[in-house]
Structures are given as structure tokens and as C-alpha cells.
Specification:
Layout lengths: L1 H6 L33 H7 L1 H7 L1
Amino acid sequence: MIREGKKRGLMSFEQVKAIEFIKEAFTIENGLLTPTFKARRYAVEKRYNELFKKIY
């Protein structure tokens, strides 16, 4: 991805450095989405806090 970003003229701070895939879908039932299908940011941050620390 970095090579492609450089080819397209992206600055280093604009490029993806780390990516992590999760198996769990964001749903209303698991509390990660609102009824209007918007992310519940606090719930997402709380659930994936360790993952965020790892990739940032």
C-alpha cells in the first residue's frame, strides 16, 4: 500500500501504516451501531481500545 500511495503522490502522514481486520460485524444487537446504522463511537472505542493502541 505504501508503494501505491507514493506512486499516487500521497504524503507519508496520509498513508496507511497498519491495518487490522476484525471478524465481528458492527450491529445494533451487539451495541456497536445505533438504530439509524451510525457507529456508536464510544462503544467501538471501548471494545477495541487495545487494538487501537496496537496499531497506532
